[in-house]
Each structure stands twice: as C-alpha cells, then as structure tokens.
Design goal:
Blueprint lengths: L8 H9 L10 E7 L2 E5 L8 E4 L10 E4 L6 E4 L5 E5 L9 E6 L3 E7 L6 H14 L2 E7 L7 H9 L7 E3 L8 H6 L6 E6 L5 H9 L24 E4 L5 E4 L14 H5 L1 H7 L16 H7 L5 H30 L13
Parallel strand pairs: 8-9, 8-11, 9-10, 11-13
Antiparallel strand pairs: 1-2, 1-4, 2-3, 4-5, 6-7, 12-13
C-alpha cells in the first residue's frame, strides 16, 4: 500500500484485521464519486484509477476501499480514521448521515471576507469539524478585494476559540503557503464552505494550475457562483492531498461526540463557575454565564446559538433512539418500502 497516498498505521491495523485479502484486492483510495460509481487510486505516483460500482457501499471521497476479484464493485470500506459528517437533506423526520470527506487530517472551513460575517454558520461548522476527528482551521478568502477585513476577522475569530484563522487570497497567493504547509508529510486537508466563497480559486493556487473551473463574481456583493460539482481528491505538487467539496447551504448537525463542548469551550468554562451545578443560566443567583452576558464578556446571541444546537442535537438523538426501538420491535426487518414504517 502507498503511504504517500495517505496509508498509515491505522489502516494497516484494519487491513490486518480483515485477514489481508488476495493480492488483487490491494486497498485503494476513493478519489471521486459519480452517481453510483467510484474512481479509486492505488498509487500516488501512478494512480492507475479503477472505476467501480459502489451501490450498497457506505463510501465517501477519501475512504480506503477493497474491490472484488473482478474489479467491478467495492467489497470492503476500511474503518475511517476521521470523517466530516452532517445531517443529509431529508424529507419529513427521517435523518441520515452525509459524509462529505473521509480520512482527513485538517478541515479547512472557508469563508469569504467579501460577505457579511456569519458567526452562526461558523459555529455549526466548528461543531462538525471537531466531531470529525480532524483539526479545524479557518481560511478567510478574497483578501485582495475585501473591505473592513479587520472587523470581519475579529467577528469570526470571536467564535473560533483556539482555532487558527488564516487570511488568504487565491488571486495574489497570500496565505497559500500556509495552507500548503497543512498537507506536509502526506496529510490530507479538506476544503468545506458555502458556494461562492472562493474555494476553486484557492484550489487552483495550491495546485499551481487551472484545475478547477471558476466564475466571475457578481457586481455589488463580490459573491462568486457555484462551480465545483463533485467532491474529489487532488494531489498537491509538493506532497499531501486536498479534498475539494461543492459548496453546501445547509449545516445541519449529526450525532455529536464532544464537538459542541469544544466549539463553545468559552461558554462551558463559564458554566463551570456557576454557583449551582444544575444552573439553567436564566436568572439563578451566582450564574457565571448571565454575569458574563450582563457585563459584555459573552455575546447573548452566542449563548442562544449554543442552546439551539444543544436542543437540535437532543432532538436528533431522540429520533435515532425512536427508530432503533421501532427496528427492534420488527426484529430489525425493514418494511416492504424500505422505510422504518413511519
């Protein structure tokens, strides 16, 4: 297996646990997914890509997989070391996971300096990034055409406690070397953000070539249009890997580990100093959270955002438990239409 492609001790252990299937089944890494098909690389130097079916496989770009003897479909998906997962778009109350990128070392959350700073979106992205198992970094793009950069940086930094914030420009190259350094040693970085924030221009700057289509910004608000149409794994010239993803509008939480606590570490630190352990942070005496809000150390909107995210996560957990109970009552058998019967 090619370590330059991102193979490491974790995957070696998983591979050994599978009994190391026949030589023809040497693991490869998913570089792109298109409507039921996966493009798989088996070498960083000479990818010799396979294009195989992934029907029935829970697979994402960045995954390490094993194909069957005929090289026609994915047979195994090796356990992931990390994954950026959100709640997929859905109808009704059914919830499913949407894995945007797998086996990543650094999640780069991309925001444009030319757009009004969106603290609430960044908070949600940070929760997902911390839960991914990767290290989050924030990249603020379009510095070359931005106004009031300092104010935007300050607003976003205030909700990104202890998370590095880079000011960059894909057009001038500012900050590009700092981003490239994140992939040193064969690491994998993933770009995530809304449409039009300049990810494609930044990708081209990192690659040193026009690999991704870009579009002109609109007059008046300097917003770009959606250009990336598929998530893909890209080799960086000096080593390391980049997963570029299409812009996404919804940032819905998935089942969280400690992402909320880590994204709101400043608020949880305050909670530890409340007089009562079961403080509701309303008007209880000795509430450190209310005191911080009253004296301006904590933005009340940030605390309200935390409460919404905690409630959203609790509702999702309740939904999952309800679905599990229904499946248990049916003995794990799906209904004829493949749903959970609701």
């Amino acid at each position: 297996m090619d370590r330059a492609l991102g193979w490491d001790a974790h995957f070696e252990e998983v591979w050994n646990s599978l009994g190391r299937p026949a030589a023809h089944a040497t693991p490869g890494r998913v570089a792109r997914i298109d409507r039921g098909w996966s493009t798989i690389w088996r070498s960083a130097v000479d990818p010799d890509p396979l294009r195989v079916r992934n029907i029935g496989a829970d697979v994402a770009v960045g995954d390490w997989v094993v194909v069957d003897a005929n090289a026609e479909r994915i047979e195994y998906v090796l356990d992931r070391r990390s994954a950026f997962v959100r709640r997929a778009s859905h109808e009704g109350d059914r919830a499913e996971a949407d894995v945007l990128a797998a086996n990543i070392d650094v999640v780069v959350l991309v925001h444009a300096l030319t757009a009004p700073p969106n603290q609430r979106r960044l908070e949600r992205e940070l929760v997902l990034a911390f839960d991914s198992g990767a290290w989050p970094v924030i990249a603020l793009t379009k510095h070359d055409v931005a106004e009031n950069t300092a104010a935007t940086v300050a607003e976003l930094t205030s909700v990104a406690v202890d998370v590095p914030v880079l000011v960059v420009s894909g057009m001038t190259g500012e900050g590009v070397e700092q981003l490239r350094a994140l992939a040193a040693g064969g690491r994998t970085i993933a770009f995530l953000g809304a449409s039009g924030v300049g990810k494609s221009t930044l990708v081209n700057a990192l690659l040193g070539r026009e690999a991704m289509a870009t579009s002109a910004v609109r007059e008046g608000d300097q917003r770009g249009r959606h250009t990336t149409v598929a998530t893909q794994l890209l080799a960086l010239p000096e080593g390391g890997w980049l997963i570029d993803t299409p812009g996404f509008r919804a940032v819905s939480l998935w089942l969280s580990g400690h992402g909320i606590e880590r994204a709101f570490v400043d608020v949880f630190d305050l909670m530890d100093h409340c007089r009562f352990r079961d403080c509701k942070h309303d008007r209880e005496p000795g509430c450190a959270v209310r005191e911080a809000i009253d004296d301006g150390r904590l933005d009340e909107a940030r605390f309200a955002s935390l409460e919404r995210l905690v409630a959203e996560e609790a509702a999702l957990e309740d939904e999952q438990r309800r679905r599990e109970r229904l499946a248990d009552r049916r003995g794990g058998r799906p209904t004829p239409d493949g749903s959970d019967g609701e």
